[in-house]
Amino acid sequence: VGRIIARRAADNLKPCLLELGGKAPLLVLEDANLDEAVKAAAFGAYMNQGQICMSTERLVVVDSIADEFVAAFKAKVSTMETGDPREGNTPLGAVIDMKTVEKVNALIDDALSKGATLVTGGKADSVLMPATVLDGVTEDMAIYADESFGPVVAVIRAKDEADAIRIANDSEYGLSAAVFSTDIANALKVAKQIKSGICHVNGPTVHDEAQMPFGGVGDSGYGRFGGKAGIDQFTELRWITVETEPGHYPI
Question: Which residues are catalytic?
C-alpha cells in the first residue's frame, strides 16, 4: 500500500510521508540488566496485543545470557492473562479480527515445524490470543522476517554483540529498535549501527513523544512526524525578500 501511495504521489509531484510497518528488534547484550530488559520486552511485545507499528517483534539475545533471559521472560509473560478489556483486569485483550488470529497461528505452526520451541502461550481459536514466546527462531522461519502484528515474539539467539547487530539489521523494515546494556557508551555505538529511524537504549521499542522525530527507513517508509521535523514535513519553506534601497543591476 505504501508503494502504491508513493507512486501515485510521484505521478502528481505530491510530497508524501510514509509511516509503514515494522519488525522492531530489542537487543539484549551480555551485560544487560535482565530485569529491565524483561519488563521492556514484555511491554513492547504485548501492549495492545502487539498491534503497534513499534511493537517488539524480535528479541535478539546474546547466547551467553539467553537461557537466563528466556527463563525470566517466561516467568513474566506467563502472568499476562488475556481477557475482556472492559473488565480492566487483564493486560491483553482482543486482536483486531480473525484474520490476525489465522496469520499468527500460521507463523507459530511454521516456526514449530522448523525447530523453534514454544516457551509459553500458543495458538488460539478466537480473537483472545495468549501472549506467546517462541525461542530458537532462525532465518528460515517466516516469523523471522514477517511482521506478525499480534501477541507473539521471536527469541533469536546471537553468538555475540556483532552477530546481534547483524541479526537486527537483517530485515527489510527499520522503524524502531532497542538496545539493553549497562555500558551506555557501548550501547550508543551499537545503536548507531542499527538501521532504524528510532533506537532506544535501555527502553522499550514502543516509545513515542510528540516533540521527537518519528519515522523509519527501508520498508518502514520515509519522512518524520513530530516536532520541528514534522512541521518541516508538512509545510513549504519559502524565501521572501524586501528591497529597501534603490536597485543596482549589472545590465
Answer: 19, 53
